[in-house]
Amino acid sequence: MTPSRKWLAALAALVIAVAPLAAEPLSSWNDGPAKQNIVTFVNAVTQKGGKDFVAESERIAVFDNDGTLWIEQPIYVQFAFMLDQLRAAAPKHPEWQSNPAFKALLAQDKKALAEIGQKPVLELLVTANSGMTVGEYDQSIRNWMKSARHPQLKRPYTELVFAPMQELLVYLRASGFKTFIVSGGSVEFMRPWAEQAYGIPPEQIIGSQQDVSFAMRDGKPVLTRAPKIAFVDDGPGKPVGIYRQLGRRPIAAFGNSDGDLQMLQVTAAGEGRRLALIVHHDDAEREYAYDRDSHIGKLDKAWDEAKARNWIVVSMKSDWKKVFAFQK
Amino acid sequence: MTPSRKWLAALAALVIAVAPLAAEPLSSWNDGPAKQNIVTFVNAVTQKGGKDFVAESERIAVFDNDGTLWIEQPIYVQFAFMLDQLRAAAPKHPEWQSNPAFKALLAQDKKALAEIGQKPVLELLVTANSGMTVGEYDQSIRNWMKSARHPQLKRPYTELVFAPMQELLVYLRASGFKTFIVSGGSVEFMRPWAEQAYGIPPEQIIGSQQDVSFAMRDGKPVLTRAPKIAFVDDGPGKPVGIYRQLGRRPIAAFGNSDGDLQMLQVTAAGEGRRLALIVHHDDAEREYAYDRDSHIGKLDKAWDEAKARNWIVVSMKSDWKKVFAFQK
After folding, report:
1. Residue A314 and residue A277 in contact, taking contact as beta carbons nearer than 8 Å
2. Could you say which of A8, A237, A265 has the minimum Cβ distance to residue B22?
3. A320: how many CB neighbours lie within 10 A of its CB?
4. Residues of A in contact with B5 (CB under 8 A)
């Protein structure tokens, strides 16, 4: 390293060290134990020479998406997308008329959907979009996200991300963390908009996977969607997805439902200081209120575990000044 | 943004802009068309306002590992590891005595191994290490890498990475690229040492995958290896692995054999300026010389494609001043 590079490196280090101090992190969070615990954790793992210091390369934070980073009621956003896709594809699939998952989806029968589970529903989706190239599928998601509106809040879904969680993502990255999404939803559904909404690039999104296959078509290589689910990234699948794609144990995990339990357990079980946090939807006025009895985003076992293990439970009602950026 | 943050951001931008100029990139590369083409490409995609400019987030470069970043003769390094693992596990598996892949491996019968293909060989390996936790497996790789030596060069394998390619990785990252490994080998085999050898962290390694499953053991969550291959990241599997994990089309790809053909094709077929490069092993004195007739790292179809499409073909003999860092 020449002297000039040394000087530049020192300068860069200074800039990086000073910049976060100038920011005002977590401004949509009320000063309560949740915010305090987050800040205490971040200070502990970033303090050089401190007993809880964690090297930057190991500062991995994983976030569930539905219900943790954005809205998931009255149905998962991807379900709303699927419904529109299925309606469009239904004329070509008369066999769907007798398919329980198809009927439950069209009727938006939450109870039946919860009983049927994620896999048969995902199977319908993969059939609906199989044969599309990955580029065509990506475009269909982009188009839908532009025109779709939430049935009650009448806003584009990308406005229904949680402002306090966006701030948390920014705060963690400013503190040297690398942030990942780990979602039960399909990875392709999140990639087109997650970078703008969360600052998380496509390669840092872990999700359920549909098979794709390579072929040459008119002398050009294409990837085409196949009617098969390759991986379901939910519940016990989440730590598996993290292992496959990330290859390190996170030191911080953020979820809101029983589907996040194993991801939180694996994160919390690592050596050294760890952060496990659950967002509790208790704000019927500004968003929704649901937990143990909900068909979507059921929070039951993970809540008990949070209490037993002293994980942070965020009350959307009392810990957040606002839920969405458009609220005052 | 407060004025002080603005000032810091401007300073950071300046530091980032100036720093690469101070480095001396690709010093182990002779001044020939290969080096010239690489530098011309990097200058084109990084020149702001230029017609070939590519935003930093899209500057994705993918590298094959075996034969592209490190040695792959006389057998893939992972095969050498597997042999030791299989020898250790053989007493517990009398059924292997009649398994063609096992026999070919122990005899190091390259011809038979090439005919058998990668899958039966990987299947043996996954059986040998199934039941191990992912932590135990990781440790077994670390231990082996410490003690193992190349049969001819008598050095640890981590010294047998190609110095010019290490420089290329550094040069690309200094130019705003994000660098990934995309290997037919298993992802876990590379993670323990790739960060030190290449500066590539675990989450930027794409490779073949073995199933792992989640379980609670004595109240603690563990991931255990299952005797099943989940994904083979070779040939047409490489663009699929890139799509699954990375979600963007790379703008630069580096390989050395027919197993890299589809990855190179997909990369080269993208819009805008692209770089596709093949390392040709033609240096029997400093490393090995092999191509169309080799059982390992066969370079045949990809070579024809490289010639037809004007991809860069690097001659290790004439383009590189040295192959390994320990050579003068």
Report:
1. yes
2. A8
3. 27
4. 19, 22-23
Beta bridge mates, B66? B70
Closest CB to A269: pick one of B19, B23, B221.
B221
Kindly identify which residue of chain B lies nearest to residue A214, measuring between CA atoms. Answer: B236
ipTM: 0.88
- Residue B265 to chain A, least CA–CA distance (Å): 7
Question: Which chain B residues have a beta carbon less than 8 Å from that of A188?
Answer: 247
**For residue range B282-294, what is the model confidence (pLDDT) as tens digits?**
999 999 999 999 9
Q: How far apart are CA A192 and CA A118, in angstroms?
A: 22
pLDDT in tens, A114-137: 888 878 887 887 788 888 999 999
Task: With both helix axes pointing from N to C terminus, report the angle between B118-129 and B100-107 in degrees, rounded to the nearest 10.
Answer: 90
d(CA A209, CA A188): 8
DSSP per-residue string spanning A92-156: G-GGGGG-HHHHHHHTT-HHHHHHH-HHHHHHHHHHHHTT-BHHHHHHHHHHHHHH---TTT-S-
Amino acid at A296: I
> Hey, are the CB atoms on B8 and A19 less than 8 Å from each other?
yes
Please check the confidence at residue A22 and state whether its pLDDT lies above 80.
no
Please tell me the distance from the alpha carbon of residue B221 to that of residue B214, in angstroms, as a whole number.
Answer: 7
Mark yes or no for CB contact A204/B203 under 8 Å: yes
Collapsing DSSP states into helix, strand and coil, what is residue B138?
A: helix
B266 and A223 within 8 Å at the Cβ level: the answer is yes
Query: pTM of the entire structure?
Result: 0.89
